[in-house]
Write the structure tokens for this entry.
Amino acid sequence: MDNGEVRGWLAQDDATRLEELWRLADAARRRCVGDAVHLRGLIEISNRCRRLCGYCGLRADNRRLERYAMTAREILDCARQAVRFGYGTVVLQSGEDAGLSGEWVADLVARTRSDEQTRGLAVTLSLGERSEADLALWKQAGADRYLLRFETSNRALFELIHPSLPGRGGDRVAILRHLRRLGYEVGSGVMIGIPGQTIDDLAADIALFAELELDMIGVGPYIAHPDTPMGACPERYPPAPPGRQAPASELMTYKMIALARLACPRANIPSTTALATLNLAEGRELGLMRGANVVMPNLTPTAYRSLYEIYPAKACLRETADQCHSCMKSRIESIGRTVAVGRGDSLSHCGRTQTPAGSI
Ligand code: SAH
């Protein structure tokens, strides 16, 4: 699909015409990754953060937020819970927390990969922009995958909403390429409807997904948080040209999921919590029916869960891990899909690493 067609779909609002996009994406999903939906157990290991992202409630200067960091024991207990629920993967996510040292995380990964109960789990990390040394150390310790959204391919907009650390460039695409060289399965994604973001920007995001040959793609609507500059003072951010602002809507999110599936047919694509936040009743299901093949039930202990407030009114905020588990399972089965067994490694990554030496 060329850029013009992608833009055409992003601008399309006719429900009957969009049925065709949903049909194409669902067919590609079924053909390339099948009917099984992978469950990734999400553990939000720390909400401490050194960054000042304009959109995120975890930003360093949000003093209203009580901070926490889980202990290794608590995290391992959650990973064991993941095994009992039959999940093949745990995703360890946090703010960009300098308190999580490279060695501490490496030790945690190594323990998860050697513990009698959790050794079969794939480990995905999503800990922000970390040094090349840390990323290499974690790979050696047994981490399998890394998630780092580039948030928007519009560089000027990215720099505006995600200021770099003093003296350091903020090139997430360079980090994604480095993760690939280290042998990680690489995941990225964007927010949809960031103030100042246009449909052309979203089309460029889709092109970048394909260029990076992502193994995992997560997209979700931008949701304003009142304790952030973008939420409290949106007027301080330059608007898109008249009539060009991309909406942070449920519909635009489905279009991006469907187009991501068509751009990277073998990628693992979650139906995200931000989408479920816009439509609690059936957002997850519609995402799965329009290209997605992954859901991420939350395993974070309830005491911490409400403190991982990247945006307000997050879906599943008060549920326990048990409730999230049965809710996800029944949603998957209600649309005639099955719950996957096993680690659910990315098929594109397997294809890439099994390419015989010497061939392109
Ligand atoms: N510190 C890590 C994890 C951040 S939370 C990192 O920066 O990679 C994971 C994702 O939540 C972010 O990448 C971002 O896309 C999303 N997010 C953060 N704030 C959001 C908001 N206000 N609305 C919607 N999504 C948001």
The chain has a mean pLDDT of 95. The chain is about 40% helix and 10% strand.
